[in-house]
Amino acid sequence: MSQSPTHALPSYLDPEHLGPWGVYLQQVDRVTPYLGSLGRWVETLKRPKRALIVDVPVELDNGRIAHFEGYRVQHNTSRGPGKGGVRFHQDVTLSEVMALSAWMSIKNAAVNLPYGGAKGGIRVDPRTLSQAELERITRRYTSEIGVIIGPSKDIPAPDVNTNAQIMAWMMDTYSMNEGATATGVVTGKPITLGGSLGRVEATGRGVFVVGCEAARDAGVEVAGARVIVQGFGNVGGTAARLFHGVGAKVIAVQDHTGTIYNPAGLDVPELLVHVSQKGGVGGFAKAEPLDPKEFWTLETEFLIPAALESQITAENAPSIRAKIVVEGANGPTTPQADDILFENGTMVVPDVLANAGGVTVSYFEWVQDFSSFFWTEDEINQRLERIMREAYSSISQVAREQKVTLRTAAFIVACTRILQARQVRGLYP
Ligand SMILES: NC(=O)c1ccc[n+]([C@@H]2O[C@H](COP(=O)([O-])OP(=O)(O)OC[C@H]3O[C@@H](n4cnc5c(N)ncnc54)[C@H](O)[C@@H]3O)[C@@H](O)[C@H]2O)c1
To answer: Which family does this protein fall into (predicted)?
Structure first.
């Protein structure tokens, strides 16, 4: 064997083009020294349990037959069924879906949800499809991965370019194939089909809750604190509204239409109305436009990246003057930037903790579907807040004890939980 057993790669990956999977492997290597005797099992985290590649043939509206590549990867199911979204994007690759599925294992374990990690995708640009083509591709993909998904096996959810309607088609296709209505096979469904109240706002609410917990640890008073937000969609818009609601001042917002600034604090409810009418924050009257690069240099208590990955880099991290970064987006901070922020004393609440509110309410949706008994929005929000607070508390305790960042602590907590489950279950046969 040419490679050492600890870095053996599966033959289907190209070592020169590992993509996001390579980043994930580095993160596991970073955490291994903290795993003690559980380190014996760490190889299980470095390969997905199961990776299914499917051909998705569809008849297009013009009569042509097109074929698309589809994936469903179950990274780890030691702690429960697989759970993770489905993304429709022209650049989706197996390596990317593998990494995203692994990060779902980490997120679910970090927040202590009884799930493993999974992810799926189709290599297609959905903007090129008609609604009827989108439905056909969704149904064929669901049918192809139907052999490995199911309410107690693996539960997909929406991700990039997929939504409640697509979840409804997935649920219907699976149910038709099974011969019985199975609402619990996907989450993020429409409310009329067993979806959960509170799901839409859940991720932003989780960002707000852990942001407040981090503020207490950092000695920051939330009322009156300055907040800057990149991305004013579902996650960023909700988090901004909740911070505004407790008296924090949202002084700058950046999205794909522009960057706006008001040192006295933006009127967030009015800005939300503006965005729903105009499609973005650009042109908001009660603020001044700001150079996009200056956004990252503003002095602030909270910085919430809630748009895209790799936004905080080695280039802009040295000029960041935020006390606390709460990662609403997935992967907004590169590893080099992470080290720079740490050296400069900025606290980073990592994505696997900060944006776990969405999957937490997906978990509630699944539980409600199983019992066919639905909770009120207040009950959902209270349970979400309790889970987020408990997760923050156990992760920050590890960070203090081990003198590591919250990101490393989240990985320690998550990997320990997964490997303890692996160890106590033992290997079959
Ligand atoms: N929605 C969820 O439940 C959820 C859960 C976990 C993680 N996330 C992550 O949170 C992030 C945001 O998701 P969302 O659901 O709010 O999406 P969204 O589509 O509702 O909003 C995305 C926002 O990002 C902004 N944006 C896009 N390109 C930009 C650019 N180049 N510069 C600045 N801003 C830009 C858009 O203008 C928009 O305001 C993503 O990384 C997503 O993976 C979302």
So the answer is: Belongs to the Glu/Leu/Phe/Val dehydrogenases family.
Residue ranges covered by each domain of the chain:
1-47, 48-183, 200-353
- For 48-183, which CATH superfamily applies? Leucine Dehydrogenase, chain A, domain 1 (3.40.50.10860)
pLDDT bin (cut points 50, 70, 90) of residue 247 is: very high
Architecture of domain 200-353: 3-Layer(aba) Sandwich (3.40)
The pLDDT of residue 321: 98
Is 107 annotated as contributing to ligand binding? yes
* Residue 256 Cβ contacting ligand 1 at under 6 Å: yes
Q: Give the residue among 81, 60, 82, 59 at the shortest CA–CA distance from 71.
A: 82
Contact at 8 Å (CB) between 189 and 172?
Answer: no
pLDDT band at 7 (very low <50, low <70, confident <90, very high): low
Residue 5 has pLDDT above 50, yes or no: no
For residue 231, what are the contacts with CB-CB under 8 A and spacing of at least 6? Answer: 254, 255, 305, 306, 307, 308, 328, 329
177 is in an annotated binding site: no
The domains spanning 48-183 and 200-353 adopt the same CATH topology: yes
**Distance from the alpha carbon of residue 307 to the mean position of ligand 1, in angstroms:** 4
Q: Of all helices (H) and strands (E), which one includes residue 128?
A: none
Return the percentage of the chain with pLDDT > 90, whole number.
92
- Closest approach atom of ligand 1 to CA 236: 16
Of all protein residues, the one whose alpha carbon is nearest to atom 21 of ligand 1 is 233
